[in-house]
């Protein structure tokens, strides 16, 4: 596997993209992105488990029932969530608009939104900006698309890798946005992945579920589950590799690369977590199951006392022990061992060893800083 | 029911108390408190559900198996938690020391601790201070006892009320400490209650469980469950009221007064939550059960995004909806109604109406401020 220099969503063959400022954000920053495949292709998506779902997410789930798409249109600055029938109509109209301009099927357009909840998304701004967005599509503008989906993010989050499947070069690229309301369960941010691999939609879904389980489902910034977020992957088959239609060796290789992409983007989200000054890696070993290990690691990751201890470079394993104990799994002082790396460094490792079983999990989180409070106290 | 002016743990007949600085805290502030009943009497306790329990808590549970006690000795500045056999021996030695000085049974001494986890509690400091602590016991020094149990608290938390049972004046008084690691499940702080009511230990326990369920179990400051905390109530019967031995009218009256005491102290803990600038009352109505309503209300209370919105005086019902939705109870945009009082005020009310059932619960919490981060980033 090779990591591509300046890799992005247009690194794979047959994908173009664009991003611009449509005026949804008051700041005038880019807020509308489009990613398009030259052909409609197998597409898989995973979504937030929050029962309060944003309009575009409801629509995307509906459209993706046929496991096929050709374009992703995403705005930032407004989540189009809790916006009623009017908001749902805006999502529908956005899909119709883009499909008309691209001359593709409406159902092949994935609509996504991120930003403030509860305010109507101004469709007229999307309508006004869409022609230029489509006209400017280019195989070199993946970075602009990566920029237009950001909210409080300080950095763009992109990556692409190249693997070889059946003698053919296959590229997978992706971009993501954070950076608050980050907590699993899937998918707690937006992430759009493209690949020129030839793979059936069934195997693509399977690969995506495996990849997200070990990446986006293992991160937490503030323990708050979002209403909006999703991960999608479009696979247009342009690389010409032998079609992956079973869990063969090529599938394993593809899944491994996809997991790498997702893990890289997940870590970038944590690193750029709202107000984050530290990156914390929490290993829990000796649990009954992987799921239990992850639950325990997330309880530690979501403890404000652990997060503030990290912020203050103030190692305190009592707080880690208290977080584990709060789950009432019977863990006591005598059945837990905790080790730390230096809290003074930017990258902190917390290792917890239990005597409940043989399984482990790693979770990534950030610290809790006064800046997080400032960002979220003022955000409107 | 009458609220007593300057009411405290020595307001009830037959109780004396004292508090002083034993040098456990580096700051030189009071850190050792003693509350004593003139006679051994029915006593009930409730404890944290954290499976990692502090040494004094383990000892107190053991000693209280006979539902009887005569004294509470509590230090602040050190939690005596995660301190192994040595720490447990310190708790035992403390009980033995106090019992010897008071000439009462060792098993009638409740030991409690609060403060930093993972450091050995210096027994020699308790030993050196104990004679003066006992010698200075007075029926006027409840306030000193209330002071000696504080940690990061900014204010003392005390109250006493008077009720009439069978023609006799009965007094219940209590003191409590917060102010971080505040999250139910019982008991997430220290609270010591005294009363001169005559009541059997069985009915006392029943009254305490009812009172805590509607008070201390309904508050959250940071969602972190403590390893140390407990609520105890000693009832010495000095008021001469007809012994309460069943769930009669006097029992209801007593429980109501005890609930009032606990609710008052619980609210005071929230008001004095670490870094708190706002007091938030969250009502959830229309739930399947009281427990479900409380779970939902606590999810809202523990959302860092809701808490920072309160801090920033920035009403955002999207965050409240997202917190409810994260519980995956099937609540959607169409089955939730949210109303707010002004976020600009110090006391904020958040009301959530659901369509799941007929039950409700109220939970109290504080906001999340930069000060919380500073306090917990530096605390050692």
Secondary-structure map:
Two copies of one chain form a homodimer.
Chain A: E1 2-3, E2 15-20, E3 32-47, H1 55-63, E4 68-78, H2 84-102, E5 109-116, H3 123-135, H4 142-148, E6 157-165, E7 168-177, E8 190-195, H5 201-213, E9 219-220, E10 230-235, H6 249-271, E11 279-287, H7 290-301, H8 304-311, H9 317-325, E12 336-340, E13 347-354, E14 359-366, H10 370-378
Parallel strand pairs in A: 4-5, 8-10, 9-14, 11-13
Antiparallel strand pairs in A: 1-6, 2-3, 3-4, 3-10, 6-7, 7-8, 11-14, 12-13
Helix pairs in contact in A: 1-2, 2-3, 5-6, 7-9
Sum this structure up briefly:
The structure is a homodimer of 380-residue chains. Chain A has helices at 55-63, 84-102, 123-135, 142-148, 201-213, 249-271, 290-301, 304-311, 317-325, 370-378; strands at residues 2-3, 15-20, 32-47, 68-78, 109-116, 157-165, 168-177, 190-195, 219-220, 230-235, 279-287, 336-340, 347-354, 359-366. Chain A starts with a strand and ends with a helix.
């Amino acid at each position: 596997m090779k990591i591509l220099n300046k890799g992005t969503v247009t690194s794979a063959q047959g994908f173009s993209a664009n991003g611009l400022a449509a005026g949804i954000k008051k700041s005038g920053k880019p807020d509308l992105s489009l990613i398009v495949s030259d052909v409609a292709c197998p597409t898989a998506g995973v979504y937030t488990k929050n029962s309060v779902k944003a309009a575009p997410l409801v629509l995307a789930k509906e459209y993706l029932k046929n496991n096929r798409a050709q374009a992703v249109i995403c705005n930032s600055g407004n989540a189009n969530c809790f916006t009623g029938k009017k908001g749902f109509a805006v999502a529908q109209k956005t899909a119709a608009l883009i499909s008309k301009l691209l001359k593709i099927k409406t159902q092949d357009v994935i609509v996504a939104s991120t930003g403030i909840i509860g305010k109507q998304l101004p469709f007229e701004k999307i309508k006004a900006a869409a022609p230029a967005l489509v006209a400017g599509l280019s195989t070199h503008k993946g970075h602009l698309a990566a920029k237009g989906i950001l909210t409080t993010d300080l950095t763009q989050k992109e990556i692409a890798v190249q693997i070889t499947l059946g003698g053919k070069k296959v590229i997978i690229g992706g971009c993501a946005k954070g950076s608050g309301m980050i907590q699993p369960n899937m998918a707690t941010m937006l992430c759009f992945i493209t690949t020129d691999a030839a793979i059936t939609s069934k195997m693509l879904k399977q690969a995506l579920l495996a990849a997200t389980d070990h990446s986006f489902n293992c991160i937490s910034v503030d323990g708050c589950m979002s209403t909006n977020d999703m991960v999608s992957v479009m696979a247009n088959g342009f690389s010409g590799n032998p079609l992956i239609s079973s869990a063969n060796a090529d599938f394993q290789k593809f899944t491994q690369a996809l997991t790498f992409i997702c893990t890289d983007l997940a870590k970038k989200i944590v690193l750029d977590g709202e107000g984050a000054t530290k990156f914390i890696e929490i290993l829990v070993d000796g649990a009954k199951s992987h799921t239990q290990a992850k639950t325990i690691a997330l309880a530690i990751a979501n403890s404000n006392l652990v997060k503030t201890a990290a912020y203050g470079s103030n190692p305190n394993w009592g707080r880690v022990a208290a977080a584990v104990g709060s789950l009432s799994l019977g863990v006591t002082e005598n059945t837990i061992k905790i080790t730390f790396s230096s809290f003074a460094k930017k990258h902190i490792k917390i290792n917890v060893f239990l005597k409940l079983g043989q399984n482990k999990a790693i979770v990534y989180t950030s610290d809790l800083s006064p800046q997080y409070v400032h960002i979220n106290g003022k955000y409107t």
